[in-house]
Design brief:
five-stranded parallel β-sheet; Rossmann fold; about 375 residues
């Protein structure tokens, strides 16, 4: 994909069965076991992946339900699943059974749905969590809640305000059980195959909950605006918290004050997403003909934009000559055209000259 032209991107790593019918990969299990969460280092010197995760759904007979596993390890993702293909059939251990041995487990009555990992990071929650929840329960029985594994890496005490709001907009059950250090035994459990692999591909159905979120906020999107998601305030806050500059990737690649001025001259409205509510962010992208911003989290909001929206990504010191792989996954799943402008701090042209030339080609 040329850096100065619009095109719907290809998937970074196409999967041979990425176009499979999703209906063949949703099932309802009776008395399954959802094994406890675990993680650890991999014995490898490779750049990635570096860690394994465990914790999956098993049938009552002890067979691994591969649909429940997170598909990872692509494009810099550090985690790959490591679950045994079969375990001895497990029975719940009551916390009141002091003499029965084993670690007490959690038992859940009724029908629940397995929702993958309750990711902590904004972009990962949009792309991984919201695409993992079953959307076709193949039963009329009401789902009582979601059974999920914790975020990667596990964090404690992180507020769930924005995640709760996205879950509400997506119409997800309020009740959630996070499977941490003990096994969980739902009476019945709906499991669907993961619809998105980070940095790799998205399967059909990945956009279902994204659509629900958008329609809940903007029933009739009108993609007309040009919006630039600025990182200027965010990077300033990051610099104050991290004086050594380890995390301010955009600030090292662009003059952020001049960047805002360039986009304003090109007819963009400048917004700072960290100052906006979730609903405001969704409304902004749903009504945008073009959304632009630096590589990373904010542009993942394109998941809530229409197929008519174009996405302009500005690279940073991490992304180099190519767009962030997961941004390509989102735009491909949405059918959105995107363009990419690489950071070039050593260019003979000034930043303003480079952007003016790019805008002349793109618009």
């Amino acid at each position: 994909m040329s850096a100065l032209s619009w095109a719907v991107p290809t998937y970074p790593k196409p999967d041979r069965d990425a176009v499979d019918d999703e209906s063949a990969h949703t099932l309802v299990l009776s008395r399954p076991a959802v094994t406890r969460h675990g993680t650890g280092p991999l014995p490898t010197v490779a750049r990635s992946p570096k860690r394994f995760i465990s914790g999956a759904v098993y049938t009552s007979a002890g067979e691994l339900v591969t649909a429940s596993q997170r598909i990872g390890g692509f494009g810099g993702d550090q985690y790959v699943s490591a679950d045994l293909p079969r375990i001895p059939p497990r029975l719940p251990v009551s916390p009141l059974d002091r003499f029965g041995g084993g670690t007490p487990s959690t038992m859940l009555d009724g029908l629940w749905a397995y929702g993958g990992h309750w990711m902590d990071h904004f972009g990962h929650f949009i792309t991984e969590t919201l695409t993992s929840v079953p959307t076709d329960h193949v039963t009329d029985e009401e789902v009582r809640g979601l059974v999920m594994h914790p975020t990667l890496p596990t964090r404690h005490g992180t507020p769930d305000v924005w995640r709760d709001r996205l879950a509400e907009l997506a119409g997800l059950p309020v009740a959630r059980h996070i499977v941490g250090g003990v096994d969980c035994f739902p009476e019945r459990l709906v499991v669907s195959r993961r619809r998105l692999s980070l940095n790799a591909f998205a399967r059909p159905g990945a956009t279902v909950l994204w659509d629900r979120v958008t329609r809940a906020v903007v029933p009739d999107p009108r993609p007309e605006d040009r919006v630039f998601f600025s990182r200027r305030r965010f990077e300033a806050d990051m610099a104050a918290a991290d004086p050594e500059g380890r995390n301010n990737r955009s600030a090292l690649a662009w003059d952020l004050d001049a960047l805002e001025a360039s986009f304003e001259r090109a007819g963009f409205t400048i917004v700072h997403p960290e100052t906006m509510s979730i609903d405001e962010q969704i409304r902004t992208v749903a009504n945008a003909a073009v959304i632009a911003g630096g590589s990373g989290t904010a542009l993942h909001l394109a998941a809530f934009a229409t197929a008519a929206t174009r996405v302009l990504e500005l690279g940073d010191i991490r992304s180099g000559a190519n767009p962030v792989p997961n941004q390509r996954v989102v735009c491909r799943a949405r059918g959105q055209e995107m363009a990419y402008i690489a950071a070039a701090p050593d260019s003979e042209l000034s930043q303003d000259e480079r952007l003016d030339r790019a805008f002349a080609d793109l618009f």
